[in-house]
Structures are given as structure tokens and as C-alpha cells.
From TrEMBL, chain A:
The lineage of its organism: Bacteria, Bacillati, Actinomycetota, Actinomycetes, Pseudonocardiales. It comes from Amycolatopsis albidoflavus. Residues 58-91 form the SWIM-type domain. Keywords: Metal-binding, Zinc, Zinc-finger. The keyword Metal-binding applies. Pfam families: SWIM (PF04434). InterPro entries: Znf_SWIM. This is SWIM zinc finger family protein. The keyword Zinc-finger applies.
TrEMBL record, chain B:
It comes from the Bacteria. This is DUF5691 domain-containing protein. It comes from Amycolatopsis albidoflavus.
Length: 437, 480
């Protein structure tokens, strides 16, 4: 029984799966035992029947390992509110242990069979020669695109940025889509970021020049990527948008076994793709790592790395001058640690950031963990001040109040992303525990 | 030397118009820039190098003072299950349950996780009734936030001490909170301070303060309330009239008895019921002094009579008969409903149970029935409503239920839930049932209505009632 309670998820983890806030709310509404009949849980699955607006009750099944969901309701949300409600009931210990009924058992077996077939498929031998040829062709296209971009940027600099204020943003977007055609999404992203800066705020020429100069250097590096040192060459390829498959990383990436603290996670949605950045820090190695997960809108993001937990396992890093992105080769179940992490000071965090920038000048966010922080006013906004009286500003787009409320009584430890706009806090440890912001 | 700003200036203008001298760049930047020959390329590469240096060279802010910490708060946090409930409440948009939850948490002396306070404070910005319980629950951290976010200033009031600063310099809300606190902590000082400031306060503030005093009314307040009857603001007089009813032997009450005596006679008729005869009261300058101003014009005699009956101590009627007998008597002069409504007003002001009971029985569908039931003892409330649920048509009954003064005693809650359980599906019943499920007091939450599983075909409103009841029961259990 003890094991089972430990394997159960927290309600927060369940709600992470909700594709949107409305689903989370609806899911909570379904988490009442009175709504369900013949509900139960086995070691691997949950099931139940729920009376909806239809004539027949909906049959809902959840396999917890995946997690995978099935429900006979017509909802197009995934997972639907019934699956969420069932998971919540389970999380609260309100589902009785029972034998899997036939329909549940059958579904689980079918799923297992499908997974096996899929595995066989991916094992099929690949045409390595054709793949290498495709990579060569792409590099040629990217290099051509990068050369075009450099020429265009040089033209703009000799004509003057002042002309950008009229229609400059549109022009940047047009060039960005040409870079997409040239299969260099990294360059396109940089141009789109630059386009959002034009005419915004008094110092927009400053920020525009900073952004475009880095895009220029990246385009320049694309030309001579073969002659760069190995780490930097990998960084340039990644920044240009060449992806490295997980299989490649697992085969040749640097392996770091450690006890990893999940310091924070942040979700973003761009171009109808949801992504979650999860930051980790190795307890022994002190290494920072970034695990990315992606999902189309309406689908849940990977929730198996809850912030604040610790997970033992081996991370394999993507190659690069400042290796941050990583994938887990194998890992154990996350556990909640006894103690809060020990963070650094503002000065030490900035020093580490400087060292990382020296190796990767395109670095746009850097993970920091800072201890003993107290809130301080900084102009119109807020900053966090450490024991040395040094402070870092909060990014103006951040809602500061939950963090300020936590830090009002006693100094706190904060995990954040340090960006050019300021700190973006992700997690806060205070006297009573850890809070995801 | 070419600084970053010079470089930005050059690029803004264009390297065609302003030349960039690479030799003037700082050494680290110059080295990189000179790998290129075209001035535009040089400018871009120099800018990239500069950007790297500027980002890497960023220093922490210094010389800014951290804010002073909030006062310590030794109260325990709400238990973990209640934390999950709070998240649910905040997202479920059921403000009336948030209020109940906060009031319970405040009463039990818990505090809530600090990171939830901003969301609660935002909810209380639009729902004023959440403010007082939230200010208590939020405690010193709430006050800290309120001092720093003007939109949440209402959080500051409760945490303040009882020093006179808040009274002399505070906002209306803070002064009100001060008075409320000191009326309990040091009643004599509160009354003294209030009396001293009274004449200089604007009308709406006087009305608020008088109503506040009314919640802590003592014998010694009689002269103060008497004086307020002659206030220049109608709002204040209204409250004073309500409060003076609580002093059955007041001087103004005596004067009212004298006035009314001149208007009332009982006419006995052979073999038929007695008739209560009213003569219109004479205009009288003293009335204004006693808080009654009737505008001149047609109907002013009736209006004056109505005001006098409502302001006269009910003991006046003892010589004419029992409340039950009087409530059933025929009336001559003004319409019967005028007399009954005036009696009802008097019964409410004086909180007279006997009269309230008699008036409800005389006219169960009357306008004041719900308010009058509120005057009765808990057992009588339950018994009276139980009787009405059998007698009144559903339209009148559901309207009455919506108006019943809250909080309800447990016995009344049970009567109402029993009624809901026995009803068929009906739009008005569903409406009343939703209110009943939210309003019944905690001891009623274990009612069979919440316990017995509903059949699959039960109407949605029944499910909603069962859900609200069990939700509330869980909510209170978590905080026990």
C-alpha cells in the first residue's frame, strides 16, 4: 500500500496534463466519486464509467505509465475532462484497488502490441548514404541563404537603420521567410525577434543593432562552420536550426550521471507548437541542463519532471560550446528532496553567465539559482537583492507579486532564467517549502 | 575611442554617410572588426563583439535598499488538502464559496500560502465582501503587500494597531476598521473619539459610523442615538430610527406613545368584532426632532401615521389586546396594509418576537414575512417556515426563501433541505435550492440530500445541490 501511495501522482502533476485552463477546471469538476460508477485502479491503469449528457455513460481508461488516455466521450480535448477527473480521484486516493475489467484489459493489451510493432518499424535499416546526401544539400542551401542575408544586412547598415522605422519590421519578416525557405530557421527566428524590436521604446536602435549583429555573425559562421572548433561548430549548427536526433545524442553525447534537481519549468507557445523548458542542476557535478519537450496545441506536455523534485539518472548532453540541452538516457522516479538547494549570489551568477557568453555569444537565457534574496524596489519595477547588497532586476513582463508575497517575511531562494530583460523567476524555495511560479 | 553609442549612431545614419574608424575601437573589438574590410561588415562585427562584452560585463545593481520585512506571522498554514481546495476555488469562480472559505480560515486562525494572496487580493478588489476576511487571513504579509500595491490598500487596515494614527490620518476604510477594532478593545475610548469627531464628519461617514456603533449598541448609547434622530442627513436619521427601537423606554418612544394615543380608538360593535379606528395625527414640530419628516402634499396624514406607528414602542398596544388579536383586527382610517406594514417595521426595529410571530401568521404572504422570521428564535424560525412550506404556493414560498435573513439557524437549514428533497422538478424550486445549498449552516451539510447517490436520470439541478453540499462539507472538514 505504501508503494502504491508513493507511485500516485500529486493533483498538481495531474493538472499539468490539462491542455488548457478550462479543461483543468472541468477536470476538477469530474473529480467527485459521486460522478463515477465501477471505477477502480490496478497497478498500471485507472478506469471508470461516468454519466455525461449522452444516454450511455462514458467509459474512461488511463494508463499511468505513458500516460495514455481513452474515453468514449466526444470531446476533442486531449486528455478530456473525464480522464483528468479520474486521475485526480486517483491522486487523492479515492479510487479503490480492483481487478481490471475485460474492456480495460483488452485496451492495454492492444496498446502494448501496437507499441511493439512501432518499435520494430523504427529499427528498420536506414539508407545512410541518402541521408548524408540530403544533409549536404541542406548545408549548401543554408550557406547560400546565409550569404544572401549577410549581403542584405550590410546594405542596410550602409544605408542606415533610421530607414527601418518605416516598414522595417515587414521587411525583416520577409527576409525571415526567405531564411525559412533556405532551411535556416535559426536565422529566421533571429530576424523575427529583431522585427518585434523596431520602433519599440526609446532605445530600439540599440537593441535592434545588438540582435541583428548577432544574426550577422551567425550567418557569417555558417559559411565557415567546417573550420570552427568542434564545440563552437556544433553550437553554430544548432543555432542555425540543424537538429540533432535523440538517437545521435544518445550515441555520442557527453554522459553525466548525477542526482538532478529539477529547478524549474516554463511553457511557451509559438507557431502552434507548445514547448516546455525544464531546467535541472546536478547535485554532484553542479552542471546545469535543459530538457525540452514539445507538443501540438491541445496536447499535454511531458509532465514527468515536476519542478522541485530530484531525479537520479544519466543525462546525455547535446554537443555545443556550452552544452545545456540534454536528454535522459535512464532515470528513476522523481522524489521530493528534504532540503532547499543552496544557490549563489548575484555576482557569482553573472560571472558564470559571462563565462558562458564567452563560449556561446548567442546565449539568450542562462539558468541561475540565487539564495537569500529580499525584494527591493528598482525604478518602476522590482529587483531581488542578495546578502551582499547586490541585486538583479526582475524582467518587466513578469508578474512580481506572488514572488514578493513569498519573500515579504523571510529571504528566499529563487531559480530563474537570466535574460537581457532581467530575471524570469521559475521556482521559489521559502521556509515552508517550494513554490512553482 | 568609438563607444557603443557612437557605433549605434553610425549604424543609424549609415556607414555611407558616417565612416567608422576601426582603429578607434577598443582593442578586443578592433581585432575582430579588422578581419573584415567593408565598413558595413566592420560595423556589424564590431557591434556583435560589443554586444558580447556588454552582456558579459553586466554588473549587479548596487546601492538599492531591500524592503523591510513583514512582521512575523506565527499562525499555522492551512493543511495541504485545503491548499488544493484554494486552487480550485480560485479557478472555479464561485465567489460566495471563497467568502465562506476565507471566513472559516480566518475564524480558525490559519494563514494561507503567501503566493496565493495576490490572486485572492485581486478577487477582493471586485468583491468587497471578501476584503474583511481576507485581510484577517492575509495578516502581516497582506499588510506588506497592501502598502506596496495601492490596488490592495484594503489589506492594510486589519493588520494595523489601535493607535490613533489610523483614525486621524487614515483612509475611510482604515478609519472604519479602527473604529470596529476599538469598539471591541476599548469601548469607552471608541465612543469618546466618535463623539468628538461626529460634527465634522460628512453625512455618508456619519451613517457608516452610526451603523457600526449599532452593531455594538450599549445602554449608554441611547442619548447619542437620540441626538442622531435630529441629524441633518436622511441616511443618518434612518439608521437612528432603526437603532432607537432597541430602547423601549427611550424619551422619544414616550413622545411617540403620546402622539399615537391621540389617534387610536377601539370601536366595539354588538355581536361583531371590534374595529381599530385611526385618526390622522396632527402636524407637530417635535416630529422633526424625533427623526420624522413627512413632505407636505396629499397622503401626508397617512405617511405621518405610518412613521409614528413604526417608531412607537410596541408595549403601547398591550392595553388594546395581544399581538395576535390586534393583527387580526379590522381597521378604519388608513388601509389595513399600512397599519400592518408599520407594525412590521416596529417589530423589526424592536426585535419583538411575539409581534413578528403574530404578523407572519396574520399574513404569511406579506412583504415583510422573511424579515420578520429573522426576528424569531431559532426553533420558531424552523417551525414557522416548516408550516409555510406546507401552506404557501411555490411562487410565494421560493420568493420568501430567497429573502430569509442569513445566517440561518441549523434547524431552519434542515427544514429547507427537507423541503427541497420532497419537491418535484420546477424552475423556481431549482433556483431556491441552489441558494439553500450555498446558505445552509455547516451542521446541515451532512443532510441525506448530499449523501444518498442520485439515480442516473436525476435533473442537473439536483446534482448541483448535492455537489455544493458535499463540496462545502469537505471544505469545512479540511479546516477542522
Amino acid at each position: 500500500m505504501g508503494d502504491e501511495a508513493a507511485a500516485r501522482w500529486s493533483p498538481e502533476r495531474v493538472l499539468e496534463l490539462a491542455p488548457d485552463a478550462a479543461s483543468a477546471k472541468a477536470g476538477r469538476g469530474q473529480a467527485a466519486p459521486a460522478k463515477w460508477s465501477d471505477a477502480g485502479a490496478s497497478g498500471r491503469a485507472l478506469w471508470g464509467a461516468c454519466q455525461g449528457s449522452g444516454k450511455r455513460p462514458y467509459q474512461t481508461t488511463v494508463e499511468t505509465a505513458g500516460p495514455a488516455f481513452r474515453c468514449t466521450c466526444p470531446s476533442r480535448k486531449f486528455p478530456c475532462k473525464h480522464a483528468l477527473g479520474l486521475l485526480l480521484l486517483w491522486a487523492e486516493g479515492q479510487l479503490p484497488r480492483a481487478e481490471e475489467p475485460g474492456w480495460v484489459h483488452q485496451w492495454l493489451e492492444e496498446r502494448a502490441a501496437r507499441a511493439e510493432r512501432a518499435e520494430k518499424k523504427t529499427d528498420a535499416p536506414k539508407d545512410l548514404e541518402a541521408a548524408a546526401k540530403r544533409a549536404q544539400e541542406r548545408l549548401a542551401r543554408v550557406t547560400a541563404g546565409a550569404a544572401e542575408l549577410r549581403g542584405w544586412l550590410a546594405d542596410r547598415v550602409s544605408a542606415g537603420f533610421a530607414t527601418f522605422e518605416r516598414g522595417g519590421a515587414d521587411e525583416l519578416y520577409t527576409v525571415a521567410s526567405r531564411m525559412v525557405d533556405a532551411q535556416a530557421p535559426g536565422l529566421a527566428n533571429g530576424l523575427r525577434r529583431a522585427a518585434t524590436l523596431v520602433g519599440r521604446g526609446r532605445d530600439w536602435p540599440d537593441r535592434l543593432l545588438a540582435e541583428l549583429s548577432l544574426v550577422y555573425v551567425l550567418a557569417d559562421a555558417a559559411n565557415r562552420v567546417e573550420s570552427l572548433p568542434a564545440g563552437l561548430a556544433d553550437t553554430v549548427r544548432t543555432r542555425l536550426g540543424f537538429s540533432v536526433s535523440n538517437a545521435q545524442v544518445l550515441e555520442s553525447g557527453e554522459r553525466v550521471p548525477d542526482q538532478w534537481l529539477i529547478t524549474g519549468a516554463i511553457d511557451e507557445e509559438q507557431d502552434s507548437l507548445r514547448s516546455r523548458r525544464t531546467w535541472l542542476r546536478g547535485k554532484r557535478s553542479g552542471r546545469d541542463a535543459l530538457v525540452l519537450s514539445f507538443a501540438p496545441p491541445g496536447r499535454p506536455l511531458d509532465s514527468s519532471l515536476p519542478p522541485g523534485f530530484e531525479v537520479a539518472g544519466e543525462l546525455v548532453f547535446h554537443p555545443g560550446a556550452v552544452p545545456l540541452r540534454a536528454v535522459f538516457d535512464h532515470r528513476e522516479e522523481p522524489v521530493f528532496p528534504e532540503a532547499a538547494p543552496v544557490g549563489g549570489t548575484c555576482a557569482s551568477a553573472l560571472a558564470e553567465h559571462a563565462a558562458a557568453l564567452a563560449a556561446d555569444p548567442w546565449l539568450d537565457r542562462w539558468p541561475v539559482v540565487l539564495s537569500d534574496l529580499r525584494p527591493a524596489r528598482h525604478g518602476e519595477g522590482w529587483a531581488l537583492s542578495d546578502v551582499d547588497g547586490a541585486a538583479l532586476p526582475l524582467a518587466p513582463t513578469v508578474d512580481p507579486w506572488p514572488l514578493l508575497a513569498l519573500a515579504a517575511e523571510q529571504p528566499v531562494t529563487v531559480a530563474a532564467e537570466w535574460t537581457t530583460a532581467g530575471l524570469r523567476p521559475l521556482s521559489c524555495w521559502h521556509r515552508e517549502g517550494m513554490v512553482r511560479l | 575611442m568609438t563607444t557603443w553609442n557612437d557605433l549605434v549612431g553610425t549604424v543609424l545614419l549609415g556607414t555611407r554617410r558616417r565612416t567608422l574608424d576601426p582603429t578607434a575601437l577598443p582593442p578586443g573589438v578592433r581585432e575582430i572588426a579588422e578581419q573584415h574590410t567593408d565598413p558595413a561588415d566592420q560595423a556589424l562585427v564590431a557591434a556583435a563583439a560589443y554586444t558580447g562584452y556588454r552582456r558579459a560585463g553586466q554588473q549587479p545593481l548596487t546601492g538599492i535598499e531591500p524592503e523591510p520585512a513583514a512582521a512575523a506571522d506565527d499562525r499555522p498554514f492551512i493543511p495541504p488538502v485545503a491548499r488544493a481546495r484554494l486552487v480550485h476555488l480560485l479557478s472555479a469562480n464561485r465567489p460566495e464559496l471563497v467568502e465562506e472559505w476565507l471566513t472559516t480560515v480566518a475564524g480558525k486562525g490559519f494563514r494561507v500560502p503567501a503566493e496565493r494572496l495576490p490572486a485572492l487580493a485581486d478577487a477582493a478588489r471586485t468583491r468587497v465582501s471578501l476584503r474583511a476576511p481576507l485581510a484577517t487571513v492575509a495578516g502581516p504579509v497582506g499588510a506588506w503587500l497592501g502598502e506596496r500595491n495601492p490596488e490592495w490598500a484594503f489589506l492594510v487596515a486589519a493588520a494595523d494597531d489601535t493607535s490613533d494614527n489610523a483614525w486621524q490620518f487614515g483612509t475611510a476604510a482604515r478609519r472604519q476598521a479602527w473604529l470596529e477594532r476599538v469598539l471591541v478593545a476599548d469601548p469607552a475610548r471608541a465612543r469618546q473619539t466618535l463623539a468628538a469627531a461626529w460634527g465634522n464628519e460628512p453625512a455618508d461617514v456619519r451613517a457608516t459610523f452610526l451603523a457600526l456603533l449599532g452593531e455594538h449598541l450599549a445602554d449608554e448609547d441611547e442619548p447619542f442615538v437620540e441626538a442622531a434622530l435630529g441629524d441633518r442627513a436622511a441616511g443618518v436619521r434612518e439608521i437612528a430610527l432603526r437603532l432607537i427601537g432597541r430602547y423601549p423606554d427611550s424619551a422619544s418612544g414616550e413622545r411617540m406613545i403620546e402622539r399615537l394615543r391621540a389617534c387610536v380608538t377601539v370601536r366595539s360593535r354588538a355581536l361583531r368584532a371590534d374595529v381599530l379606528e385611526f385618526a390622522p395625527p396632527e402636524p407637530d414640530d417635535g416630529l422633526i426632532r424625533d427623526g420624522i419628516r413627512v413632505p407636505a402634499g396629499p397622503g401626508q396624514g397617512t405617511a405621518r401615521l405610518r412613521a409614528i406607528i413604526a417608531a412607537t414602542p410596541l408595549r403601547f398596544w398591550a392595553e388594546y389586546g395581544s399581538p395576535g388579536e390586534l393583527a387580526g383586527m379590522l381597521v378604519e382610517g388608513p388601509p389595513l396594509n399600512v397599519v400592518r406594514e408599520s407594525w412590521a417595521t416596529a417589530a423589526l426595529r424592536q426585535r419583538d418576537e411575539q409581534w413578528a410571530q403574530a404578523l407572519v401568521e396574520a399574513e404569511p404572504g406579506g412583504r415583510s414575512t422573511a424579515a420578520l422570521i429573522g426576528v424569531l428564535s431559532p426553533e420558531q424560525q424552523a417551525a414557522t417556515v416548516a408550516k409555510l412550506t406546507r401552506g404557501l404556493p411555490v411562487e410565494a414560498l421560493t420568493r420568501l426563501i430567497l429573502d430569509l435573513p442569513q445566517p440561518w439557524p441549523a434547524a431552519l437549514g434542515t427544514v429547507l433541505l427537507d423541503w427541497v428533497a420532497g419537491q418535484r422538478d420546477h424552475r423556481l424550486v431549482a433556483h431556491a435550492a441552489a441558494l439553500i445549498a450555498k446558505a445552509v449552516p455547516v451542521p446541515c451539510l451532512g443532510h441525506p440530500l448530499a449523501e444518498i447517490p442520485l439515480p442516473g436520470e436525476a435533473a442537473p439541478w439536483r446534482r448541483a445541490v448535492a455537489e455544493t453540499l458535499s463540496f462545502r462539507r469537505e471544505m469545512h472538514k479540511e479546516l477542522a
